[in-house]
Amino acid sequence: MRQGIPYFGSMQIRVAGHCRALLLYALCALAGTAAAAPLQAQWSFRLLPGDPQLQAHPGLDAWRPARVPGSVHDDLYAAGVIGDPYVGAAEAGLQWIGLAAWEYRARFDVDAATLARRHAELRFDGLDTFAEVSLNGRPLLEADNAHRTWRARVDGRLRAQGNELRVVFRSPIRTLLPQVQAMPHKIAGNYPSPYGDEPKDAMVGNFARKPAYHFGWDWGPRYVTAGVWRPVHLDSWDQHRITDLAVRTDALDDQRARLGVLLQVEQGATVGRASVAVDVLDPDGHRVASLEREVTLHPGQNTVQLPLEIAQPRRWWPVGYGAQDRYTVQARIDGGGDPAREAVRRTGLRTVELRREADADGGQGFAFVINGVPVFAKGANVIPFESFPARVTRERLRRDLQAARDANMNMLRNWGGGYYESDDFFDITDELGLLVWQDFMFGGGMQPGYDPGFRANVVAEARDNIRRLRHHPSIVLWCGNNEEETAWKDWGHGRQLKDADPAFAARVWQGYVDLFGTDLRAVVAEEGLGVPYWSSSPGNDLDAKANDSRRGDKHYWDVWGGPALPATAYLRETPRFMSEYGLQAWPQLSTVDAFARRDEQQIDGAVIRAHQKFMAGQGNERLLHYIEREYGTPASLADFIYLSQVMQAEGIELAALHHRASRPYTMGSLYWQLNDVWPGASWSSLDYFGHWKALHYHARRFFADVAVAALRDDDGVTRFRLLNDGRQPLTAQWRVRVMDVAGGEFARQQETITLAPMAATAVADLVDADLLKGHDPARSVAAFELLRGGEVVARRLVHFVPAREQALAAGQLRAELVANGGDYRLRLHADGLVRAVWVDFGDTGARVEDNAFDLLPGETRELRVDADARLDALRAALRVRTLGDTLHAASTSPHDPASTPRTR
Ligand code: BMA
């Protein structure tokens, strides 16, 4: 049966009453707001009367209940007007929503204390996008940027009862289309709409400051949504209020930290005196520094600087390098006592350097150095977590970010085609020690940087978001955009425009340079508290060449994209920092069940294609190209899913280990992509429901501090390297064994070695003949291992032929599930070589401690299984797949797991 997609919207509402006590208020203030209470209101929405869409959708001009924060798609879904936008092939039928104007209305009362205060302000943390706001019948503000915070003073405009706030959202397509269509030559957009709602030759997305992925991307649907997508606050005060609190680290060593606490204080119409106090609490909650000062405040914004010192400061470190200690800085003006006069930030003490060392041969490195320690960045790119961002809960973020850390990642790149993530996101990355590379929100194509008004809008957006987020120690880079420079220089965007209109092309490029070379760099320098700026990914900060393996960061898509080279091509691409590379895979069947009925589940079916966004649904052909080259032709959708995951995991592992083996020349490896925006095919390692694809289990091994890189290229040479990202040298044994797939070792070598810290150590380059010693390559496997105290701590297998030619027999795995006190154990025994074991307990909710691994002939492994279900139910649900079984499967039924081994 088709499962509904869970709806998270209602859990987002924040409750004002929880902010009373200072400590609890501190937690609220951590949400990035200096001082404000969320507006308590009854919200409704309707199609704006008179809108042309009314003809096709009569009756929608009647008010219906709405949720704020939210989106019009979610409100229409909750009202029963539309079906679930993630289920079936719903997209084509919902594009009218993005062409309509929507009106939201909030009715609210105001308490006496608020009314009695001299000043009041309504603050909108997110209006998506072209919005006209009115209060009690009078215009209040006009907004044109979903990424900005919009504020309006409402002094004297509130009443005790029956206030009415209205927000009209104009269709971004209809708003911008006339201006875009009037351009004699267009600038490059991203993904044209296949649905006819927007002309393919006049895309508006790059002219709107709205999440780019809403217009459709190659991993997600096109839903040009609208709405109040972040909370609305009502703030009130008398004399003055704190509008921002920043903590600058002026000096940091083991003995002391010198901090500059920067308070923004807004003062009313007359000059006044005030007392300002700051306390710093250490990670255990002990007060370690305090300061109180009398200041003179002038009408308008005042910056108050307070110097503080902390002795023996505790650093914030990325995971794997030390603790994630954080300090709490509390500020009060006039003794505090209400939200407007207090502010709290939780921050960490660390230094960040983007090290750009030049080589003798003209190359230039790209390495993050945190607290003086060069960190090899291991991780993935993050895309939005939903098409409708207000659905994303803190629990959801924690689930996927915890999974990133569990897979031994230490860095995530927040890609520029979405939105600036919530405070929750960064609070969790701070806590987990995940470094964040933060793009500004430009996902590709080009934008009207030649328009000073557009640039000013972006600068305001950048200032809002840097100020909101700059206390987070996890943020270590602000990057101008995703792929705009390389698109202009390498994909023909620049050349085509130059051919058509050289003068306009020059203006467009100058606008680009002004925006990303000058304006955003300046805002980051002014506001970013020392975090480095990088103009584009990939790039070398406006160097002549944008995507250069020898300089700066690199996106590499010759595997999967363009020429669709085999995964071994990864071994011949050695950049300074690989910020994107990827292979797709389908999510597991239970995730497919959430959007497709069983009778819709064919590889080439309409619903399956609707959830495969690469090249207008052609992604499955690309997947088959990779699967068939290495493994063979899948017999069913279930086989296709499994083989796509095996292919993705093995390919990305090869690349990631190569990057790590190239340390220190290469200093980072971020694959595309961590997560999903909806249930569908994509490059992610976590699916929409948080299930780990095979890749995520592999990542936990290939990103582990200590790992084995045995990398065999098509020329039959295996480079054997040992990786140690730890800060200490490590003495261990390496061992190489070569054996028949049915068992029987015919070569073995073992030696003790000391691995240097934070380094890749070369062991040997081995040609096939050295390893095979005359044995049949199709019947052989080599195991490269690292042992400590006799235990294998890391292993990588090398095969000498593609899997489809390897003598992998079926029925080589025996599985037994036994009860073990409160939990269960799964015993697996391999008679011969077993590749790509996939353990699946169906919908029982059982969790197995490892998955997606290989077993050597004669090997036994026991895995812990956490489950609430009974033993017989688990046994009935258990399916274990292997590559050998799948490649031998004759079954064509889409739901036969095809490969259940002998289970007891
Ligand atoms: C990269 C990204 C995204 C895209 C991905 C997969 O170039 O920057 O724009 O989703 O490739 O094609």
TrEMBL record:
User: Reaction(s) catalyzed by this protein?
Assistant: Hydrolysis of terminal, non-reducing beta-D-mannose residues in beta-D-mannosides
Is Transit peptide among this UniProt entry's keywords? no
Q: Any signal peptide, and if so, which residues?
A: 1-36
Gene Ontology terms: biological process: carbohydrate metabolic process; glycoprotein catabolic process
Residues covered by the Glycoside hydrolase family 2 immunoglobulin-like beta-sandwich domain: 241-350
Q: Identify the residues that the record assigns to the Mannosidase Ig/CBM-like domain, covering every copy.
A: 722-804
Function description? Exoglycosidase that cleaves the single beta-linked mannose residue from the non-reducing end of all N-linked glycoprotein oligosaccharides.
Protein name, as recorded: Beta-mannosidase
> Which species expresses this protein natively?
Stenotrophomonas acidaminiphila
